[in-house]
Structures
1.
Amino acid sequence: MSTEYVPTPEDRFSFGLWTVGWQGTDVFGTAVRPPMPAERAVRKLAELGAYGVNFHDNDVFDFSATEAERDERIAAFRKALAETGLVVTTATTNLFGHPIFKDGAFTANEREVRRFALAKTMRNLDLAAELGARTYIFWGGREGAESGAAKDVRAALDRYSEGLNVLCSYVQEKGYNLRFAIEPKPNEPRGDILLPSIGHALAFIGALEYPSMVGVNPEIGHEEMASLNYAHGIAQALWHGKLFHIDLNGQHGPRYDQDLRFGAGNVRGAFWVVDTLEAGGYDGPIHFDYKPPRTEDDRGVWESAAACMRNYLILRSKVRAFRSDPEVIAALAASRVGELSSPTLAAGETWRDVSAAEVDVAALGARGMGYERLDQLALEHLYGIR
Amino acid sequence: MSTEYVPTPEDRFSFGLWTVGWQGTDVFGTAVRPPMPAERAVRKLAELGAYGVNFHDNDVFDFSATEAERDERIAAFRKALAETGLVVTTATTNLFGHPIFKDGAFTANEREVRRFALAKTMRNLDLAAELGARTYIFWGGREGAESGAAKDVRAALDRYSEGLNVLCSYVQEKGYNLRFAIEPKPNEPRGDILLPSIGHALAFIGALEYPSMVGVNPEIGHEEMASLNYAHGIAQALWHGKLFHIDLNGQHGPRYDQDLRFGAGNVRGAFWVVDTLEAGGYDGPIHFDYKPPRTEDDRGVWESAAACMRNYLILRSKVRAFRSDPEVIAALAASRVGELSSPTLAAGETWRDVSAAEVDVAALGARGMGYERLDQLALEHLYGIR
Amino acid sequence: MSTEYVPTPEDRFSFGLWTVGWQGTDVFGTAVRPPMPAERAVRKLAELGAYGVNFHDNDVFDFSATEAERDERIAAFRKALAETGLVVTTATTNLFGHPIFKDGAFTANEREVRRFALAKTMRNLDLAAELGARTYIFWGGREGAESGAAKDVRAALDRYSEGLNVLCSYVQEKGYNLRFAIEPKPNEPRGDILLPSIGHALAFIGALEYPSMVGVNPEIGHEEMASLNYAHGIAQALWHGKLFHIDLNGQHGPRYDQDLRFGAGNVRGAFWVVDTLEAGGYDGPIHFDYKPPRTEDDRGVWESAAACMRNYLILRSKVRAFRSDPEVIAALAASRVGELSSPTLAAGETWRDVSAAEVDVAALGARGMGYERLDQLALEHLYGIR
Amino acid sequence: MSTEYVPTPEDRFSFGLWTVGWQGTDVFGTAVRPPMPAERAVRKLAELGAYGVNFHDNDVFDFSATEAERDERIAAFRKALAETGLVVTTATTNLFGHPIFKDGAFTANEREVRRFALAKTMRNLDLAAELGARTYIFWGGREGAESGAAKDVRAALDRYSEGLNVLCSYVQEKGYNLRFAIEPKPNEPRGDILLPSIGHALAFIGALEYPSMVGVNPEIGHEEMASLNYAHGIAQALWHGKLFHIDLNGQHGPRYDQDLRFGAGNVRGAFWVVDTLEAGGYDGPIHFDYKPPRTEDDRGVWESAAACMRNYLILRSKVRAFRSDPEVIAALAASRVGELSSPTLAAGETWRDVSAAEVDVAALGARGMGYERLDQLALEHLYGIR
C-alpha cells in the first residue's frame, strides 16, 4: 500500500470498543469471533494510529458483573489507555441489550425501567468523566414501537426530555465537563424509533431544559436507511451549532443496518461528508461506528478498522484537491454557488424593495446551472484522475 | 354505499385545487384530462361535502396570465366560493413549475430568482389574505440538489430563513391573519430536498426570527417515502405545538411520490394517523393532497375525492370505537401504556432519589408487554369485526 | 373475541418451529425468552387450531447434539406430533446459523463447506421424509456477499444449481415424496443475497436439471423489503406453476426483516395476497413465518401465533365477500377487467389482422378505467363496512 | 481534462435519443429545454465519440404526425446517420406517453388498446429493421396497476406473452435480423409494474414461444429502485445467456427514477457493473439511458452525455488495473474466490461420496474469508490511489 494515508493521533480518529469487538451475532447466526477485552481493543487501535475510543459501560464489563469484576475490567482498560496514550473521547450507556430494555429505557412504559436506565446512565457518566470523556452519547435504540397503541408518543417525548433533563442536572451538579449528543436512527431494532432523523433530534433538543448542553451524533448509515442525504443532514446540524460528534460508516440505502467500514458504502456520499466536515465547524473526533463483517477473523477486524481511517485520509486529500483546483473554482463560479451567500435583500432593504418586475423571467428560466460539469469535476477527483 | 360516512362541512375537509385538477402529466406521459378551472373544482367539491380549498396562485391563473386574465380567473373563483360557501382555508405559491425555479426559489443560487420568488409569494399572500386563508404553505419542492457541490447547504439555510423572515415581516406589517406552515419532503423532484422531514423543518423553524408564526404541514406520502412513521411524526409536531396543517394521502413506501387517495396506501398507518389527530391538539382542516390516478376520467376524479373524505370518516369511526372498547382499555392497562404519563421522578425527587438497586432487573426483563394482543385489537377494529 | 374466525386443521395453517420458538436475540440484544422444545411448540400450536409444522434440523436438536441427544429430541417431537395429530408439512436445513456458513452453504467459496452443507441437508431430508414432509425449503440466507470481488456470481450460480441438482438426485434415488421450494430474499443477513426475488428464483429453477421438482416459497416480507408487490409475485409464480409453498408475515417496506405477524404490516397488501391465494392454483399449507416481537413473553407468543391464523380467516371472509358482491362484479365489468382474459388476437388471427387504423385513439385515450371506484369497494370490504 | 478516456466508436457507446432530448417535463414542472430533432442528437453524439443510437418511434416523429411529417422526420434522421456514420443499434416503441396507453399496452384491459399497441410496434419494427437495429427493446412502463382488483395478473401475463409471441412471429416472417430485450422496472409511472426485476423478466422469457429470441435489457436505476444489486442481476442474466442489451445510468436507491448520468449515483456499484461487463459474455453496445437534469441548458446536456462515456472509460481502466494487480490476485486467492469454480462434487462423485464427517467444522468456522482486505484493494483502485 501507499505510504501516504497513514493515520496519526493528530488526525483524531476514534472507534467504539463495540466496533472491533463485535462478535458477529445476528438474528440468524451465532458469534463467529471470541469476545474482545477492552484493553486488547485499545492496544490494537493504538498500534493502528487511532487517537481515541468510545465505550458503552457493557463494552468494558458485563451487565451482570460483580463490583470486583467491574473494577478489574476498568483497571485493565485504564492501564491500556495509560500505556498507549489513547484518549477516551466519548462514552455511552448500553440501554438496549438486556431484556429489561426491550420496551425502551427513558421511554419504557414501566417507570421502574426508566428509573433503572437513569441510574445505569449516571453510574457510567461517573466513569466517563473519570476517564476524561468530553461527549456522552445517547442512542435510544429501543425507544420506539412496532405497533401504534403500544406507545403514547407525546408522553414518550415528555419522558425522553425528562430523562435528559435529569441527566443534564446530574452532570452540572457533579461538575463534569461533558456534553450530550443524541444519535438518531429511524428503525431497527424497533419497528419505528423515536427521534428517527437528525432533524427530529435537533427539534427535540430545542425543547429541552438545557439545550446548549445537547447536540447530535449522526451516523451515516442511520440517515441513509431513511434515504436521507447525510452530508445535508450534518450541514444542517452544523448550521444549528449542534454537530457534537459523528458516526462514520457505510450503508447501501434502506435495508438492515449494515455498519460497513467507512468508504465501503455510498462512496460518492462519503466524499461530500468529508467535504462538509473539512469545510469547518466540526471539532470533535473523527469517529467510526461500523461492524467488521461476520466473514472476517481477527486479522480482518483490524484490516477493516485500519481501512476506515485510511479511507478518511484518502477522501480528505481528494476533497482538499477538489476545493483548490482552479477548474473547480471556475466551475463553482459558473454555477453561481457563491452567490447563494449573498443575502437576498441587500443591506437596508425590506420586502418593499423586492418586485417581480425586476427580473427577466425568460432569461433566468433558460439559463443553465452548469451542475453537471461541476459534479463531473468532483467525480473525477473522487476517481483520482485529476 | 352505506348512508353513514357522508361528509359535511362540519367535518372540515379541504382539498388543494391542484389535486382534482391534476391533468396527469408525468415524466413519461402527457395529460389525460383537460384543465380544470378553479370554479369547477370549487363547485364539485362543495357538492361532495367539502368545507374548504387550498390553492397555489397558478392553480387559479396561469404563470403568464395578464392582469386582466388574472382578475377574470380570480373573480370566477371567488364567485364559486361565494355561491357554494366553500372556505379558502389555505394558500400557497407555485415556486416549482416554471423553469425559473429549476434550481429552487428561496434557495436558488441566483439572487434574482430568490427576489422574484419573494415577490411572487407576497403577491399571493395578498390574495390569500383577501380570500380569508389562515394558513400559508411553503413546500420547497425545488429547494435542493442532485449533486454535492451545487448547493452550499448552510448558505441555503441562511437564505431559506432569510426568505421566511422577510415574508413573516410582510405578513405582520400588512396585518394579515396568516401563519406559515412548512411542508417537508425528502426528494423528488430534486435528488435531495432541503428540510427533508418533519424533524428537519421543526428544527429549522426554531432558528427563524418569528418561530411562533411558523409550523409544519406534513404529508403522509412525503414522510413514508423516507420510511418514516407519519403518525409518530405528527405526534412530535403536536408535542412541539407546531402541527399547523396536514396533507393526507397514500403511499407505498420509498418510491416515487404516489399521492394516492387517503386510505389507499398504508392502511394500518392511516388508522394511527386518524387516532393521533383525534387525540387532540390539531385544529386545522382535514386536508387532502392526492392525485387521481392517470387511469381515471372526470368521474373517477370525483369518486377518488369523495373516497378521501369517506375513508377519513370510516377511520374516525373505527378509532373512536377502538378507544372506547373496554377490552382495549384493559389491554392498554395491561401494557402499562398510561404509566408512561407518570413522570419518571416523582414530584420533588431529583437524580439523588434514583438508584439501580431499587428495581428487580430479572423480573422486569421477563415481563411481557402485551403489545401483540393490544395491536390485534386495533387491527380488528380496523377490519371492522369488533 | 368473535366466535367466527376460529382456525381448524381443515384450514391447513402451519408454522415454522422457529417462529414461536424465537428467543429474541438480535444484533443489539440478548434472548428475552427461554428456548422452546419442539414438542412444546407442537402441542401449543395444535391447541390453537394449527394443522402442521415446518422445521429446520436445528429447531429440533442442536447443531452440536450427540446422536443420543438428537434421537431423544426427535423422539419427543414425534411423540407430540402423534399425540396432537399435527402434520409435518415441510422441512428445511439450518445452513446459516453456525460460523461455518458465514460465507454461504451451497455457494461458499470453500468446497469443504459446500460438501458439508450437502451432507447436512441430506441427513435432514431423511428425517423430513420420515416425518412425512412433502416440501423441502431452501432459504439461502448466507448465499451472498457484502462486496463485489468476494463472490464470482456466475460460479456461485453454477454451484447453487449443482447443489440442488445433487439433492434432487438424492431425493429421487431415495424415493422420497418431496419437492423443493426456493425461498428468495434480497438482503440480510448478507449485504446482497443471490436469488433476491421470486423472479430470480423462478428463472434459476428453469436452468436446473430437474426443474419440475423445484418451485418457490416466497415470503411477504422478503419481497416487500425490495418494494415488490407480493401478490403480483405469487401470481407470477402461479402462472409458471411454481408456487409450491408460502411464507406469510408482515413488513413495513424496505428496512430490516421485521417478520411481523400476518396482518400487522401492509394490510391492504395482505387482502390481495389472500385474494390471489383464494383465486386458486395454490394447494399447499397456509404457512406463517414470523417472529413474536421481543416485547412479548410466552403469552404474547401464542397470542401472536393465534392472530396470524385469525387474520387469515378474517381476510379470507372479506375476500370472498368482495368477489361475490354484485357492485364489485359490476365495477369489475365497468373496468373491463375480464376483457383481459380475451386473447388479443381472435382465434385464427395473425399479426396480419391487426392494424392501427381499427381503433379510435382519441376515444380510447379519453375513456376512464374506473379503478378508483373498484379499489374503493375493495377497501370498504377490507374496512368491514360493506 | 485528461486526454485519456476519450471515447471512440470502437468503444461502442450508444444513447437513446430521448436521453439528450429530454425537455425536463416532470410531474411538478414544465419543459426547460426546447425539443431536440433526432438529427441534431445524432450529429452531436457523433461529435462526442458515440457509436450508436437507440430510438422510440416518437423520438423521431410525433405520435400524431401525418405520413408526410413522419417521412420528413425519418429522412432527416437517416441523413444525419449517414453523414456521421452513427449506427442505429437498437429501437423501441413509445407505448406509454399517449393517454391511450394509460392502462398499459400489451396488458391493457381493453383489447382494442392491445391491438393498437401491436400495430404501432410492428410499424416501428419495420423502421428499426430498415435502419439496421439488431435489438428491439420492450419497456412496459404502463403495464401494471395502482390497485389490486384492477389487473388480473395471470391474465396480464397471458396477454404479455401473447403480444411478444405475435411480434416474434412477425419478425421471423418478415425475416428481420432483430432480437427482443425486455426492460424490467419495479414501479413508476405505475404503482407496481409487471416483470419488476431482471429475475421476473428472465423467468417470463422462459415461458414464451420463442425464448431464444428474447433476452433482457436491465437498467441500473430500475434494479436499484428495488434495492437490488445490478451487477449481481446482470451476472445472473449472463449466466442464463440473456443479457442482450444494457441501460447504464445512476440512481440513489429506492426513490423516484433519477436517471442520473452514468457514474453519478452508486459509484462503488458502477465499478462492479463495469467489472461484470468486462469479464465477458456481453457483446452489445454500451448504452446509456439517463436524463440530463432539469438544471442544465443545452451545454449541460452535452457535458453530461460526454461524461457518461468518459466515466465508463475511467471505470474500465480501473477494473482492468484491479484485475491485473498482483496484490489483488493474491487477495482473491486468499479469499478462495477461485475455489468456487471447482465443482462441489469431483468428477464421477455422487451424493454418496459426500459426508459431514469429512470436514473440520470448528476450523472452517473460525477461518476468516479476507473479504475486507480484498474489497479495500478494489476501493483503492476505484479511488485511483493504486
2.
Amino acid sequence: MKTKTLLIILFFISHCSLLIAQTDIPGGSLNAISASMNNQWCLVIHGGAGGPPKGTMSVEDEQAYLQKLDEALAIGSNILRNGGSSLDAVESVVRFMEDCPLFNAGKGAVLTEKGVAELDASIMDGKTLRAGAVAGVTTIRNPVSAARKVMEHSPHVLLIDGGAEGFAKAQGLEMVDPSYFITPKIRERWEKSKKQDPAKGKDQEKKPGTVGAVALDQNGNLAAATSTGGMMNKMHGRIGDSPIIGAGTYANNSTCAVSCTGYGEYFIRNVVAYDISAMMEYRGMPLEEVARIVIHEKLKPQGGEGGLIAVDKEGRIVMEFNTNAMFRGYMMSDGRKEVMIY
Amino acid sequence: MKTKTLLIILFFISHCSLLIAQTDIPGGSLNAISASMNNQWCLVIHGGAGGPPKGTMSVEDEQAYLQKLDEALAIGSNILRNGGSSLDAVESVVRFMEDCPLFNAGKGAVLTEKGVAELDASIMDGKTLRAGAVAGVTTIRNPVSAARKVMEHSPHVLLIDGGAEGFAKAQGLEMVDPSYFITPKIRERWEKSKKQDPAKGKDQEKKPGTVGAVALDQNGNLAAATSTGGMMNKMHGRIGDSPIIGAGTYANNSTCAVSCTGYGEYFIRNVVAYDISAMMEYRGMPLEEVARIVIHEKLKPQGGEGGLIAVDKEGRIVMEFNTNAMFRGYMMSDGRKEVMIY
C-alpha cells in the first residue's frame, strides 16, 4: 500500500509540474536567458504583447493561454529535438497558434472596420536571408504557410490580397471562407467596439494576440515567423509590421532571429527587428542589451507599445516588452522551459 | 552688328549650357559629393537603376531623360531655395516624375501579368520619423501624395489596394481610371514580353524607372520619397521595396535620407535603406563608405542589382549603383548641379 501511495503521489507531482512551472513566474524580470554549453537548440514563442494589468484576467483564462503556449512549445520542440530545421519549427508553432482561437492570428483574429479578418504573416530564414510574407489575405487558413510558399516557390518576398490568395491556392494550401476566421467571441467584441466612442474603441485595439516564434536548430540555423490579424476595427487595407521583413520579423545566422508584437506603425518606423540585428552586428552589443534599448529607450518614449522575442546564434534568448503583459514561453535542449504572461 | 552677333552667341551659349552639363558626364565615378560650407540645401533624384549598357540608347532618348531629370530638379530646387520643406520638395519631384511617361511610376508604369499598373510609393520625414506608404494601388494618379496623406492624416503607415484607394479618395486626391497609367509604348512592350519565353521575359523586368528623391532643407530637415510600378509582368499583388519603410525608403535627421531602386526583393531582405542609416549611426562611418559597402559588397554578390541615392545631415550626397546605369541628378544651394545616366 505504501508503494502504491508513493506512486500516486509521484504521478500527481509529475502531472502538476507544468502547472507549477506556469505559476512560478519571476515577475517578468526573467526576460533574458543565457544558453548553457549543452544547448543544441532553443525555441521562443509569443502570443502578443499588451493586455490588461495582472489580476484583471480570470485564473481560468490565464490557464487557457498558458496551456496553449505550452502545447505550441511542445510542437516546435519536438521538431528541433529530432534534428528538424528552425524554419519548420517556427512555421509549425505559428500554424498551431493561427488555428487556436485564443490568439489574434488565423482563426480568432480581430476584424477590420468592415468586419473581415485581414491577415498578415511573414517568415525568414537566417541561413539564406530568404524571406516570404503575405498581407491583407482573407481566405488562406494558415497565412504563415503562405508566407513560406512565397519564400520557397516564388521569386518574390511580399504578396498581398488577391495575388497572395491566388498563389496560395495554386500552391495547394488550404483555402477557407472568410467566415472561418470569425469566432462568436470576436464578433461580439467587434460589435461592442463598433458601438463605443472612438476614444474607447482605441483601447480595444490594444488587445494582444499577434503570434510569433524564433528558433535556433541543431545545425546552428536561425529562423523567425510572425502572424497577426492586426488591430481590432482597423482600416480596410491597413498593414502593420508583422508582414514587413525588418520591422516585425528578421533572421540572420550571423546575429539573431526576431519576432515582434505591438503597435505596428511604431515598429515599422523604427525598423525594429532589423535594428536589433544591426546593433548587435555594428556595435558588438549583446542581444539582451539591444533588446532593452530598443523596447524601453527607443519605442516606449515614442508611445510604441509592444515587445519582441529573439534568439541569437549562441542560443541566448530575450523576451522584452514595455506593456502590462506578453504571452510568451521558451524551451531549450537542456530542459529549461517556461510559459508566462506578465 | 558686332554687338548683335555677340548677343546671339551669348544667348545660344546660355541656352545650351544645360546640354553641355548633361553631356559632360564623368563616367559614373562622381557618385559621392561633399557639401561645401555654403550648402543650405540639396536635392538628389533618381529615375531608376538598371537599363542597357552605354551606347545602346539613342542620343534622342538619352536627352529626353536628361531633360526630364533637369525639370524635376528645377521643381524641387525652387521649393528648397525658397525655404520650403524637404518633404514638399521630395513629394513634388516624385509627383512630377509619376506624371512623366518616361519613368516606371504613375503614368507610364510597367504592367502586371494581368496588364494593370499596380503602383507602390512611400515617403518619410526625417524630423519626426513619421512615414506613409501605399501599395498595389491602381486608381490614384499620384501614389506619393497618397503616401503623404497616409502619413499626415491617418494613424497608419502602410495602406494597400482598395483600402488605400478609398482613403485617398476621401482625402480629396485625384482618382483616375486604371487605363490612365497605360501608355501605348508600355502596352506594346508588355505585349512583346508576354510573347517571350520566361527567361527572356525576365530581362524585361530589369527595365529601370522607379523614381525617388531625397532632400535636405534650409532648416536641416531630411526627407525621402520613392514611387514605382515595380517589375514588368510582375505577379498580381507582388510588392517590392519601394513602399517598405526601411527597405526602399528611409529618412532620419540624425543620419541620412535614402531612396532605393533595383531588384526589390533583395532590397527588402537586406533592409537596405535603414542599413545605410544604421551603419552610419552605429559604426560612425561616412555615407559615402556605407553606400559603397551596401551596394557593391552586400547586394552585388547576392545578385541584388540596383542603386540608391542618399543625402546626409551635412548635405553630403551619394548616387551609388551596381548596374549599367542609373538615371540621376543633384542640385545644391551652392550652384552645383548635374544630371547623369551612366
